[in-house]
Amino acid sequence: MTAYWFGDVEGGICTPFAGDAMAAAARITSLCTSMDGFVPPDWQQAVASGIFRDRTEYLSTLQQVCITASELAVRESYAGKDVELLQMVRTLDEMDTVINLLSERVADWYQVRHPSFSRKYKKTPAHILTKTIRERSRGGALGSVAQEIERLAETRTALAKDVSGRASTVIPNTSALIGGLVAARLLSHAGSLAQLARLPASAIQVLGARTALFSHLRSQAPSPKHGIIFQHRRVHNAPREVRGRVARVLAGKLAIAARLDYYRGSADQEFLASAQARIDAAGETPIGREDGS
Amino acid sequence: MIWKGDVLVSEGEGGVYGERSLGGARVWDPYRSKLSALYHVGAGVDLTPDMRVLYLGAANGTTVSHVADYVEVVYAIEFAPRPMQDLLMVARRRRNVIPFMADAARPEQYAPVVEAVDLVYQDVAQPDQAAIAIRNCAFLKTGGVLVLMLKTRSVDVRKDPADVFRETLGLLTDAGFLLKESVWLASYHADHAAIICTKPSGV
User: Fold this and answer.
1) Where are the domains of chain A?
2) CB-based contacts of B177, cutoff 8 Å, min separation 6
3) pLDDT tens, position by position, A272-291
4) What is the pLDDT of residue A293?
5) H/E element holding A151?
6) A221 close to B (CB below 8 A)
7) A40 vs B97: CB contact, 8 Å cut-off?
8) Does the beta-carbon distance from B107 to A63 stay under 8 Å?
9) In Å, what is the CA distance from A63 to each residue of A47, A66, B48, B109?
10) Fold adopted by A80-170
11) The whole model's pTM is what?
């Protein structure tokens, strides 16, 4: 028997499928057809068995069913709880870029207005400088741009909180190991939680270090030790000689954490405690004395 | 194919993606569409009103909308949900576009839907493009045509595009396809080649 969208065909006899577009759409997504000796659906057979008047009706019904099925499929793929987190963290990172660019530009502009101004020998952080610019350039376009940057920065801070909050519910284990923000970034680079859960630890370790990885694969360049996981304090605070090891151990535990998150969906305290201890140990033992536990 | 001077156009409802119109017809930009580029380099098979087409990697439905202007029906397969939303919009406005969300590497997902076609057009960013084409030739009528837009960089960035091209040709001819024409789209799309094959009887 071969199952087609309009019915089942066995030995030249067609049993029509009765149901509306919704039911037909649900049916075609559940069908499992073997491609061995496969014969594509034949509209003439469908018309001959009286399901449709002619080819026009065959095609228009088929289109309706396929549109319905595709709409359902799109909706389903957006229903995952990681989908919105992905958009949130990408927006956050874009906002950072925009805020930095605008702050630099506004500082340049301010310098033109005040030829004696210089940032040298001052440790003014960018956001303080933006505030100063806003206060000293009231009423003009420069002042309002500076004000917009500050507002954007406020939104950014609120969004960052949302991101880590949501990350700790969507990916509790990964977030506990590396922090909500970095965990969400890992998710964003992998594409989805399902994909992150299927990545090997070695890939998680260099996620976000694409340029370095490909220059390593193409030429004699050294392999990257870490990608986004470098953003975690345990990696970037580790002494240079053990940083690679910390990154590798952390990535290994992250790979397990991501699988727990995807397949179980709740925090596993026992795993987290042992993982934290193992990662800490990797950063503390001097090189050459690793017992490999 | 309809040419107005040296501009390729298609006749149908415009305004799909902000394309220009020329004397009431829709301009088909070779820099945006690889299929248009193929016609611009003087190759490709003519699209005719009686044709049934299986389009793998339909994306936003930009090229699909032009193909649909020429042929009877287009079965448009796309895997990613975001471009699918755009493709659905195109399908709702065109009676002969049948969208389906599935992976082109798994034709069993859309086998109950897609009838035997005259043309399989493939434009997917996957490493195993030849294998995907071979698997989908189950839908191709005997004597039907496969147009494979080979994205050499998707196969392997480290390999020389010319090597990827040769290997893909080898895989297709080993599977029984008859090579009709192959051409690089260099002036329009870097590292992209078009491979046109026919399916002989008994494959």
Assistant:
1) 2-78, 80-170, 171-293
2) B134, B137, B146, B197, B198, B199, B200, B203
3) 999 999 999 988 877 665 55
4) 43
5) helix A141-170
6) no
7) no
8) no
9) 16, 5, 21, 16
10) Helix Hairpins (1.10.287)
11) 0.83
